[in-house]
């Protein structure tokens, strides 16, 4: 498997690797190495091998250059020179790292190369051709319409259109996304593996209250996940102005962290709006189970958002939390079918505030949705769908064997 991250908190990739390992495959994940942060070689407790490839020396220089540039007032930065230099450094560093990944994979001599997301697809494809391996492409997102990918949209479309039909197996995260890829690239509909967590029974805890020293018995409204644009997080902070009888807790990190904290400070919400940095995957269920309401206020900024369901929605349900989520098609199916919470229109701060107030004030309703969430968890977990992955592997290996013979 190839990932373009350090493979420290990638829940989806870890679950897929575990499923294949348990099905009898030897699995090695090739990831990125950051000295002082990650190990270059390790074997996880579940038998998954991890090999991390050091980035180009230019990567550190580029990081320092970018950091220094960000500290200078924008009016004092020669934009065209700064931007061009950073783009060139980024391209060289990425090519170096991709080359390192490909050489490491070729030395490993895999039977199947499993590329996670479009930023590993060209490397996976070239490595599969050179090693005569099978290629699986796992599209976690619709990257041609995704936050932060606007300038790369055309390039991503070219890569996926050229390479996705040449993969031996394809996977994505929701039915809506599977339909999109099938129509866009003329392929069979990819296997759908939703971002469900493993079924864990976690008793109610006081993890958040104890860690943040929360003294009032107000309900805890939880958002967990990346703090990124387009997820309705600024709106959620402002909602705390209207809803005064709740704590709002954000667990995670990202580009919006400082901006969200500034927004909290501006509105003097220190007592009720709190931030907890990203926690280890193994610790997250205890945090989730210590909240009272789980929220997903994602916005309709791109097709990728509109077709999502996301890790957090399933994590809330597994933990038995009533949910409040944006009324998008994939999210709607989960919330309405399981009767696990409330849906709100995208972008409506007032409707979000009303929904939070309703659940905060109505303990019986919260308990009703909580019971429904616990009931739904028996179906909405990783274990109920992991056979789809092992079956796909069996199929493509069998087809390859038949062709070879």
Describe the protein in words.
It is a single chain. By secondary structure, the protein is α/β, with parallel strands linked by helices. It folds into two domains: 11-197 and 384-404, Glycogen Phosphorylase B (Rossmann fold, 3-Layer(aba) Sandwich), CATH 3.40.50.2000; 207-382, Glycogen Phosphorylase B (Rossmann fold), CATH 3.40.50.2000. 47% of the residues lie in helices and 14% in strands. The protein has helices spanning 11-22, 57-71, 79-108, 121-131, 153-163, 175-185, 207-212, 233-242, 257-266, 284-288, 303-306, 311-318, 329-338, 349-361, 363-377, 386-404; strands spanning 28-33, 41-43, 49-54, 112-116, 134-139, 169-172, 191-192, 220-224, 247-251, 273-276, 293-296, 323-326, 341-344. The protein is globular and about 65 Å long.
Which key terms come to mind for this protein?
47% helix; 405 residues; 2 domains; Rossmann fold; six-stranded parallel sheet; alpha/beta; four-stranded parallel sheet; 14% strand
